[in-house]
Amino acid sequence: MENFKYFTPTKIYFGKDSINNLTDILSLFGKNILITYGGGSIKKIGLYDKVKSLLKDKNIYELSGIEPNPKYNPSVLDGVKICKDKKIDVVLSVGGGSVLDCSKAICAGACYDGDPWDLITYKAPVKKALPLVDIITLAATGSEYDNGAVISRTETNDKMGFCSDLLFPYASIIDPVYTFTVSPYQTAAGAIDAINHVMEAYFAEKHSTLMDGMSEACIKSIIKYTPIALKNPNDYNARAEIMLSATLACNGILSLGNSSSGWPMHAIEHALSAYFDITHGVGLGIIAPRWMKYILSDKTINRFVSFGTHVFDIDSSLSKEEIAKETICKVYDIFASFNIPMTLTEVGIKESDLKEIAHHIAINEGLDKAWASLNENDILNILKDCL
Ligand code: NZQ
Ligand code: ZN
Description:
Layout: E1 11-14, H1 22-26, E2 32-36, H2 41-44, H3 47-54, E3 59-63, H4 72-86, E4 90-95, H5 97-109, H6 117-120, E5 132-136, E6 148-153, E7 158-163, E8 171-174, H7 184-202, H8 209-231, H9 236-249, H10 264-276, H11 280-295, H12 301-311, H13 320-337, H14 351-364, H15 376-385
Parallel strand pairs: 1-8, 2-3, 2-4, 4-5, 5-8
Antiparallel strand pairs: 6-7
This protein binds 5,6-dihydroxy-NADP (NZQ) and zinc ion.
């Protein structure tokens, strides 16, 4: 087992009506609050009105229209400007992972004198950030319980992830009821994203029995409850299981002591959504089975055997090769059963696009140093297999 540092200061308020804690939470900070949100889903579900009524004694400013795959320009820059001009004391993010990631970048940028892109690209360290509270409305990224944010810059086709312990939300309100209205497409994409976070940690060289067991249980919960939520979107227990699993999946708690895999599927997907603005979880669903097929080797096969026999109960008396192949088929079939696109062609990406993307990934993501190392040609081959 590797040495590790583990730190998560975020207070979690989980369950029905946990929004009733919002006033107490925000009373710890000053009166000037920036509420951030996306394209309007929070208005349709009545959450916007509820938040406004709870905060009627505060000075409220708003940043709306934050898009999926949140953009540096205008969203992050506009948010930073409001924070500086209005002397914002705390940011309240209300929405999915994109709104929350954008809010994290805003909190850091608001306390920095230079161009906030310096922080996102690690040219400058985050030394200070405004406090952040969130009400998360989609089970997917786990951003509500981690210290990372992923921001896109359209003009350079960059989608950059950055982390700082100062970016953990102070508190996250996680009420599964708010996810009842998430579309089947986004529900499926969120489930695949959360499963993939666990897989990125699981398919690594060093791991422990404890982390394997917790990770397998997390994935099993999502696989069991996603079809139930897709069939009956208002099933509280199914939504709660998925949401708790997604919250834990990206926080690092499921990989304590593991060695790093290099997060190859995310590295490849982030480039796809940077170039084509596709939904993150859908991109991962397309890449994952093809990546698994490509990296299967004598070096990696034992991880496939462990995953397949524990997550899918594949017969352990089969040969390792048979178990590995069946594991890959299971992953494909489960994602496909969620009724999302399973090829790049279906999301509008053509073979002629792939060379540039593979090059972009190879020079920016360091996958040649990943556990299952990939050079530019390997990445191109995986992408071609996804067509
Ligand atoms: O914009 P609105 O109107 O709110 O609609 C959103 C959006 O269109 C909608 N939605 C959200 N909650 C809803 C709802 N619709 C109905 N009812 C609700 N309760 O869903 C759409 C997608 O929202 P988005 O926030 O983009 O989805 P998600 O939470 O999956 O976030 C994806 C982003 O997070 C990044 C991804 O790369 C992508 O940019 N990630 C962030 C990570 C992190 N911070 O740790 C890790 C992940 O690996 C990931 O990279
Ligand atoms: Zn992800």
